[in-house]
What we know:
Elements: H1 2-7, H2 9-36, E1 41-45, E2 48-51, H3 52-69, H4 81-103, H5 110-118, H6 121-124, H7 135-143, H8 149-170, H9 177-187, E3 190-199, H10 211-220, E4 226-227, E5 230-239, H11 240-245, H12 251-266, E6 270-279, H13 286-305, H14 310-317, E7 329-333, H15 340-346, E8 358-360, E9 363-373, H16 380-413, H17 419-425, E10 429-436, H18 450-456, H19 459-462, E11 471-474, E12 477-487, E13 490-491, H20 494-527, E14 536-539, H21 549-557, E15 565-570, E16 575-585, H22 592-621, E17 625-626, H23 636-642
Antiparallel strand pairs: 1-2, 1-17, 3-14, 3-16, 4-13, 5-10, 5-12, 6-7, 6-9, 8-9, 11-12, 15-16
Amino acid sequence: MFDLVRKHTKILMFMMFLLIIPAFVLVGVDGYKRFNDGGEAVARVGGRDITQGEWDFAHKSEVDRIRASSPSIDVKLLDSPQLRYATLERLVRERVLAEAADKQRLGASDARLARELQQDPSIAALRRPDGTLDVERYRQLVASQGLTPEGFEARVRRDLSLRQVEAGVLGTVVAAQSIADVALGAFFEKREVQLVTLLAKDFATKVEPTDAELDAFYKSHAAEFQAPESVNVDYVVLDLDAIKKSITLNEADLKSYYEQNSARLSGNEERRASHILINAPKDAPAADREKAKARAQELLSQVRKSPTLFADLARKNSQDKGSAPSGGDLDFFARGAMVKPFEDAAFSMKKGDISDVVESDFGYHLIQLTDVKAPKQRSFEEMRPALEAELKAQQAQRKFAESAEAFTNGVYEQADTLKPVADRLKLEIRSAKGVLRQAQQGTTGPLANAKFLTALFGDDAVQKKRNTEAVETGPNQLVSGRVSLHAPARTLPFAEVRASVREKLVATRSAELARKEGQSRLAAWKAKPGDMTAPVTVVSREQAQSLSPAVLNASLQADPAALPAVLGVDLGAQGYAVVKVNRILSRTAPDDAAAKQGRSQYAQLWATAENQAYYGVLKERYKVKINVDKVPAATSNSNAVANR
């Protein structure tokens, strides 16, 4: 069957073309996309599935958002299993809130939508001096997010509805000051403790296992001494960097590009100006705005008569607190840094000019242009590296779609080798040994991608020795791999792991000895607490004094009515600790500002807790089920990305 498909690919593609185009005409692109968006259900909310395709699309949108806000971020960090799972959880939360909003008949009126859009800073910047919206720039803004104006407004309206679901909880939380003070006082109370720690490593010299003991430990812990299933692979990567390497630029094209873009690539012109601002917010009463404008006109008359007095007048009269002390100086700025009316005026003036009264959303400005910094025009040879990089990037972006089709077809049609597609597209065949089903910590690139690893360990790749399909492992990146050697999981011979077996057995026995000694001392000191001698330390949640979390928690959870108390804390592989809690010390009373801040944070935490509890109720109500295993906690880098 598959051989037939491979031999008649072009004919089948033509037939599919004839079938698909009418489908687009009949149901529309969106309808066809919905029809074709199936795939495995990764979650279910309120009786409706969230498919793998929807998850992938949501994650791609999230990656695009992060890249837009942080262009310098390493794209490879954005496709970690932790971040992908976080995207799924957000998608589930949105669906749950959408179900609740629908059931509660919550919506956003046109007036509420209009207010929300007016408060959006990115949209406010698109207003003309007369207050009307620049519709064309608005269309460009929403198009950059892959939406039409109607689609963007529908998304904002939906977000407003979802916010209303949680607003009923977040907006009604009551955290009484007296209760907050009691809770905070208890949370931050101090305890006087004495600590003796018995470290497992200090008992290691007392452990001398025999060969028989090592052999018995090896056999009873065989799972700990396994070599996991692995593969050696060859793979090819098609991305923009690979395409750039295949592009040869024509000298004439380079020079033509230089002539067209030299001014832009040399840098932006910057201007330096001083201003006098008379505040008059756009929503101020008309009478107040007229009064402010009249004041600006009076000051304009004065600076026209004596331009050298501009700085003095700015210090005495400008209501811009940031620039007034320096005579209204705003330093150098490029286009896009100021509101449009101000920018248009400043960039239309000559050095030394003083503008007429300029109206903006902030009020009325008088502008004096004090300097112009024109970028230095660089020669063709100076700019050659930048020109080549930019032109190659543009051509690679245009060529990617065509190359992607050839790549996808090539690895499928000649499934027994990667060489033809690599030769055709001038790609490097890379190799890797000992690749595991799960990406190891520190692994980067395609071999850290869960979808690609799944494909490598699939039956087609392992049993039938075929190329994997073209897997999208990142924006503008496709990968296909071929397994050259498959090694099933196996228990390593004792001779190979003898040192590791001894190390683990010694560590286990050392921890047991530390625990036994600790429990012995615990029993003795419980009988005679006064015999325990150790330095006295005062600890709290604010000042842990290097105590491990387990010891600190045990100290703070000791029954106040039973003090002094001697407690044992099992530290696992690290050993054992005996801690004596002598007494409770009250929290040092915070000053008024700190107390107020603490109460505010307590109220926020209480609101968050209530909201999470409410969300838990909604998840049960709408029978949420996530079919994907939860990924272990992310590394600090991944957390930093997720919070962007």
